[in-house]
Description:
Elements: E1 2-3, H1 8-23, E2 33-34, H2 38-42, H3 47-50, E3 62-66, E4 69-74, H4 82-90
Parallel strand pairs: 1-2
Antiparallel strand pairs: 3-4
Amino acid sequence: MFTISCVPDCVRAEPVIYKKLEATSDDVALLRAYVGDRPTWRNPAHPWRVDSRFKLTGVPTLIRWENDAVTGRLEDHEAHIEKKIDALVAGK
């Protein structure tokens, strides 16, 4: 999960994400990465914006990694939707 703690989308999504992950019986590891302060994140050359593995456009973003590959992701506008988090965790 990539976040900035003062961004409204992050503030809205974080409790939902943690609630859903705590309730799952699947073996899930959550790695939380901060993208920096607002000016750092807004830089178009931010490493996670330009890295082909991440290609972040917004925060929070949830990315499912499996066997060294991205197998699913939720972008900032959907990272708070419980059904989508369930589907991402389940690999659907």
